[in-house]
Amino acid sequence: MKIAKRRHVRRPDDEATLTEHLGELRYRIIRCLLAVALGMLAVLLRYEDLLRFLTEPYRGLCRERPDFGCDGTLYGLGPLDGLAARMRISVYGGLILALPVVMWQVWRFVAPALHRNEKKYAVGFVGSSLALFTLGGYLAYWTLDKALEFLISWSGADVEQSYQITKYVSLVFMMVLAFGIGFLFPVLLVFLQLVDVIKPRQLVAQWRWAIMSIFLVAAVITPSGDPVSLFALSLPMCLLYVVSIGIGYFIVWRRRRRDRASA
Question: What is the domain extent for residue 118?
Fold first, then answer.
């Protein structure tokens, strides 16, 4: 029996039915879920090593600040806490490991709506997204001990620090995801300029509102809520906002040059 091949839309002018779009979306989602499942399996196989890596900022802080009265030990306050922590680490870790596949599938889903000269940016789109997410995640991990130090200092001298393992693990991964997603902000701006939704001059004209919005968004999505994490996220985002404007002007210059050459 001959199996019909899945239809691909080749150009923006091609037409596809709603059913075909939904079928394409389902196909991409299944691939993403399979990638996440494989990432979860890889994390489960190296769970102990990953747990030591995640708790190192807290243990290092306890070694450097004995006045805090902590020894870096995480506690399970219920019989299911250990299992819950293992599953949370596997899920969050699987999502992060599957990010390259997820980003590629997202691009493959939206690429048919783009023109041929815009599709050539696929590798740059995926590569820059992965690089910026990794940079954001590293910055979150690097500032974690400083954020914990601020929070512990403000909790009071008579407060003994005892952290539940599930809450600590959730905090670390939510910080990594918040910083990683925040660093993807310029990729979205470049993409919108690429498809002519916004212009570089519009971003320049609205820079004051943009900076206010960046600090507001950073304050909302930062799980710890401390000023160290707030500035560690918002200041690089402001810099990346300027970089995205520069890339937008470069796109405009390339288009004008191409139009003059074809005239």
Answer: 18-262
